[in-house]
Amino acid sequence: MAAFDIRDMEGNGGGPAPAPVPSSPIEQQRLAQLAETLSNRAMEPAFSPVVLSGFVRMLEFAIIALSGTIIHSIYQPNANPWEYFIAILMMSTTSIIVFQALSLNDLMALRAPIRSGARLLAGWTLVFLAAQATIFLLKVENTYSRIWLVLFFTGGFVSLLTVRMAVAIFLRHLTNTGRLDRRTAIVGGGPSCHQLLNALTNQSDSDLRICGVFDDRADDRSPDLVAGFPKLGNVDDLVEFARHTRIDLIIFTLPITAEARLLQMLRKLWVLPIDIRLSAHTNKLRFRPRSYSYIGNIPVLDVFDKPIADWDVVVKMAFDKIVGSLALLFLSPVILAVAIAVKLDSKGPIFFRQKRHGFNNEPIEVWKFRSMYTDRLEYTAPKQATRDDPRVTRVGRFIRRTSLDELPQLFNVVFFGNLSLVGPRPHPINARTPDAAFEAVVDGYFARHRVKPGITGWAQVNGWRGETDTPDKLQNRIEHDLHYIENWSIFFDFYILAITPFTLIGDKNAY
């Protein structure tokens, strides 16, 4: 089987992807209602187990350090604090390493603090034995109080167990509200799909929640019910389904030898911000063990990963909130001055709010300074602004050319959270070239919505901003957006943000 190439998904290699067969309005409404019913309260984003485990590690580090410090300050307030501080720091760090080695930070262990209590005690004891050995070898027995060590051992373990019980209660709440579910759709049918579903449902302590089965076949080989799970439609329906409810994982059960069929489906699904895996549960073709990842004990092959996930989400969100807040504070005089100029220049509101495509193709409302006459505003944006556009006001021409009209989007970043500082620019929902809608011009257009849109982006700093009146201009913009998504890093965001002011100088594409 040939390796999957992102260019194949874009239709640049091997011809364009087959056009999706549009569902009827009745079928779309049925899928939307079904998605809403299945989603229950789980429409909110899921909590990442990786991030949760990391926060627990940080919390336990703080609890251990705090326990040792409090006991020292109460029992031996006159002792040298630096010697105890070094010991507490080393023991706290060692504890986190030992707990990780004993798998005490897995969700399974965190959900059952009493059941994992013996391992916790063993790990905590090992830390103190290592501390005692170090004290003996360094010949500093008289430096540290034995009573302090005993109290630290007892108080630290009680504190750890108490914290883990509180974490277990919190995890139970997240589980009951669906925030820990990894909502999964299965693509395929037949015996292999039946076997996979049975294997997944028979796993204990699984975080998977199977939403249903999707199959591109409509004959007897694809029944309406597979291992108790309903068939909800074909692959095109899965794209529509994922727009209405949260899907975190897609698993293909097709044989690995069905390369053409797999590529045909993947070229429709890669536009979604979802992990895509190929089940190796029943495949006779075997790879080296390192080639597989595992869902419980089920081997799978990784096809696509969600572009920004786990700690990357936390880092990018912190970057947006911190830098966005500082920018809003620093630029507040400029924002006030532009607001006054817009109000004095022409009648109408200061701000212009427009529906645009956001993350996962969801509609969001983007704020800008109004740059057009009120009676000529285009809320649905069927026509882009052009050079010397008569709809644009005098102040509007200046703020559009200097991009000052974009400054209110900092409100979207800081307060609403539906924009990032850096990302693909959000396009109006009905945006089009002179001949066709954007999504009809570029194959895989909606793949740019796999991440949150941004105020500035890689396409913009490379000169692909402004009017997209030709297919080539739009194609170049989308290619730069996809390059950003596939190569994202926080340093890439810093770089794009840093060069954005310089790219605005002399830019002839903004009008």
Descriptors for this entry?
single chain; 511 residues; alpha/beta; Rossmann fold; eight-stranded mixed beta sheet; two-stranded antiparallel sheet; 18 helices; 12 strands; flat
In words, what does this structure look like?
With 511 residues, the protein is α/β, with parallel strands linked by helices. It has 3 domains: 6-42 and 181-304, 3-Layer(aba) Sandwich (Rossmann fold); 49-176, no CATH class; 311-504, no CATH class. It is 48% helix and 12% strand. It has helices at residues 6-10, 25-39, 49-75, 81-101, 107-111, 117-137, 146-176, 190-201, 235-244, 259-269, 311-330, 332-345, 394-401, 409-416, 438-441, 458-461, 471-486, 490-504; strands at residues 182-187, 208-214, 225-226, 229-233, 249-252, 275-279, 293-295, 298-304, 351-357, 363-369, 420-422, 454-456. The strands form 3 sheets. Strands 3-4-2-1-5-6-8-7 form an 8-stranded mixed β-sheet. Strands 9-10 form a two-stranded antiparallel ribbon. A two-stranded parallel ribbon has the order 11-12. A hairpin with a 2-residue loop joins strand 3 and strand 4 (229-233). Residues 1-22 have low confidence and may be disordered.
Largest sheet: 8 strands, mixed
Helical amount: 40-55%
Number of domains: 3
Shape: flat
Q: Provide the spatial order of strands within the biggest beta sheet.
A: 3-4-2-1-5-6-8-7
How are the elements arranged and paired?
Elements: H1 6-10, H2 25-39, H3 49-75, H4 81-101, H5 107-111, H6 117-137, H7 146-176, E1 182-187, H8 190-201, E2 208-214, E3 225-226, E4 229-233, H9 235-244, E5 249-252, H10 259-269, E6 275-279, E7 293-295, E8 298-304, H11 311-330, H12 332-345, E9 351-357, E10 363-369, H13 394-401, H14 409-416, E11 420-422, H15 438-441, E12 454-456, H16 458-461, H17 471-486, H18 490-504
Helix pairs in contact: 2-9, 3-4, 3-7, 4-6, 6-7, 11-14, 12-13
